[in-house]
Fold each of these.
Amino acid sequence: MTSVPVRLLLADDHPVVRAGLRAVLEGEPDFEVVAEAPTAERAVELAAELDVDVVLMDLQFGSGMGGSQATAVITARPGAPRVLVLTTYDTDVDILAAIEAGATGYLLKDTPPDELADAVRTAAAGKSALAPEIAQRLMDRVRRPAVMLSLREIEVLQLVAEGLSNQQISERLFLSQATVKSHLVHIYAKLGVDSRTAAVATATASGLIRR
Amino acid sequence: MTSVPVRLLLADDHPVVRAGLRAVLEGEPDFEVVAEAPTAERAVELAAELDVDVVLMDLQFGSGMGGSQATAVITARPGAPRVLVLTTYDTDVDILAAIEAGATGYLLKDTPPDELADAVRTAAAGKSALAPEIAQRLMDRVRRPAVMLSLREIEVLQLVAEGLSNQQISERLFLSQATVKSHLVHIYAKLGVDSRTAAVATATASGLIRR
DNA sequence: GGCCTTCTCCACCTTTCGATGGATGCGGCG
DNA sequence: CGCCGCATCCATCGAAAGGTGGAGAAGGCC
């Protein structure tokens, strides 16, 4: 169908992973890797400057902007490329944040090369490409909306789990402490607990947050 | 010096990472990648069958044997290859387990290709190759000989991690709240934190308590 | 247009937690 | 024996967290 190759941008902070993606994807005749970005910020710039069809985006970057933020910025622009998230983690926070941000697909890094190539073609065609594990998680989530925390609530809870105080969380998320407390009150109600440590314990047990 | 190339075995469950390592390392004229292993078990087999100088070993495998176990098995044999651990994570448990198991070096996956190549040569020569971050961690660890919490302190911290309040902990352990607080103060001092959630976060990260 | 949810923010008040600065008894070690 | 670390206990005070009861803006849905 398409005689012109699919133009790709690789965004990952690990040089080894970028080289691996390039090696795997350039083996396909209908792909062309036009650039690599070692940071999320650089990915945003390159996606704007270059004519790119699909961005392969990692979620974890060492510092600075995160992958889902970058995804949101990139997909906001009209005529934006598709963003295919490719990461190691598969927690609810990551998945929901990425999809919310406008990702076309979500793959795990242990995906075999041929499936990866298929997913890129699927994404280039504008269809969503989800790894089976991810699809399963979303199904579970829909089937049992028992612990339905909003995205923002999970975000707050994740920071609580990392040991931050309400003050620190408010600074990190550019909120007031009052708002953080509000979110926490809602979280406690939904989880049926009455303290931050208990919330972290139950949320960890149900796989809502990482670590 | 060495006219024969360094013979490498790549052990990682991510095809993309294996491809990346192969791409990066085969660019060096003095390296030869002789095999790839997608599981730790396969890495052990291949290390025994083939004549290998250095094994590049991931720590996280999806299922089955872990990377540090495989490292222990491989290095136990006389005339064994050097094992260079290459992983994303840098928690104390991982690092210590790998070094304990006989790893010659420990690198993080965001290492630049040239440093990676240097580290492989260093490992091939039998010298230890540690990423600066890792070296720093080990120094910290030596400087402050293990974060040794007393049994009682770990007991208290474990209950904190399960979400119990000081009151509940005191009842569970037949203590007064004052005593629980005392233990917590000591725990905070040893861990270098100043709140219960932060204590749980760091203790979990260093494997002091189970989750 | 209403209705609902989410996210944001505010004020007031109570409880819990953490910080400080003690004290006692016990057991190991030089 | 004295010293030290551990575990236990205590009181007090300020700071942080939690409880209650709001409110307004944005977006999806009927």
Note: The two ends of chain B are 50 Å apart (CA to CA).
Amino acid sequence: MLKVYNTLTRKTEEFQTLEPGVVKMYVCGVTVYNDAHVGHAMSALVFDVVRRYLEFRGYKVKHVMNFTDVDDKIIARANALGEDPFALAQRYIDDYRQNLLDLNILPATSNPRATQTMKEIISMVQGLIEKGYAYPAPNGDVYFRVTKEKEYGKLSGRKLEDMQAGARIEVEEQKEHPMDFALWKGAKPGEPAWDSPWGKGRPGWHIECSAMNLAELGEQIDIHGGGNDLIFPHHENEIAQSESYTGKPFSRYWMHNGMLQLGGEKMSKSLGNIISIKEFLSKRDADVMRMLVLNGTYRAPLLFNDETLDAAQKNVERLKSGLRPAAPSASGLSAEAASALASQAESAKGSFTDAMDDDFNTAGAIAALFEIVKAINTARDSGANDEQLLPAQNMLHTLTGVLGLRLRDKKGSADVDPFVNLLIEVRTEARKQKQWAMSDLIRDRLKELGVTIEDSKDGTTWRWG
RNA sequence: GGCGUCGUGGCCAAGUGGUAAGGCAAGGGUCUGCAAAACCCUCAUCACGGGUUCGAAUCCCGUCGACGCCUCCA
């Protein structure tokens, strides 16, 4: 039975979908005005794993991830660069899509954009006004009336009274209440704007997600995800808008990932301590980033530094070791030993799913995979042949795939394989004649060319890397 | 100040009532001409102080500390 921690109730709950076998999942994407950083990657990876596991469990997942492609920051950056804001947004959308592909993150089933959801946004704002949950202000803005929504604050666990104390007193004479937030912003000269019943303007930040949810998934969804820095105000406001509008509970489960920590601080655009996804991938494999995330708890802060990354890389290497072939002249295991290996893999699969069922405990799941690795390596050391290793290796491959790990070996050109094999053959002959200098030279030179050689009593193997 | 998360071996990190998963690092060993890899062995009583219980890392109270949100933010 799958259990999920729900931010809304602060409890781990049994996972039940609105519609049997189908999961409607909405994950907040990014505002496209700059290169996406590894913190965004963490969030995307977390929900990619959630999705992959749900699919592994047999659910059909409708996975929606939005792009916020019009807002203050995009406009500001575009002005600074002297670029058209829409062109700038498009450029970063393309970049981000590529980042996700490079990270082996499955494309969402739908990627709505604020600018392409304008009709729905406007009619939702209109509806909220009609129901008394919103009001237009003289300056062309439309605000949500937080005092009208009795449950406002339920996600973040705040009370309106508490928030007032700490709230920055804005020079916002237009608002009835300091915590009222903008559903629609009247356009200033030179800004991108759309026609609306309240004059030219553009949507506030939160309303687009409510509108996209409605348009893409309907009035109620199963999972709403994002970083925990979005709990307030973004998700709180989304709930307020959506539930006021439909009169129904919005999302059954709210899932939030923890923040990536760089040097003890959250990595964020405003702090400027950023490593872009592109920059990361120029130095490390995508599997390393994924392993870093998998080795921790998705809800907890994640330490991002050379030590944790090196460890993640080692973990990846270790998983790969399980996929290596048998020694060339392996003698073979007894039938009993071979089937024991297969059943060890089967039982590790049970541990894997038990861990993942427990609120996506990926660290526990990884431990189960290491059990398979150890069993395979032990069997190989005992002389198992490729055929005998295969069932366990297939299992390992399947389960690492559920976590989205590629575990690809570095690839050299296949054309050179015969020549490498020839060199190995020559070296084997040299070793028979105890010509150690020669065999070491071959080994060292091949290493320089990216080929790693390993000798065992059952023969010599090689691989790229 | 308010709300919330958390504090497990040198490092990362599972584990919510019954005597501490896993990985990395370290030390010892097997194998090997050497090396590498792999395998085997060793390595913690769970921030601190109280309490509840037959029994707590796990529940309660307090202290200290870290982090997040309260303003744009994955």
Note: Chain A is about 45% helix and 15% strand.
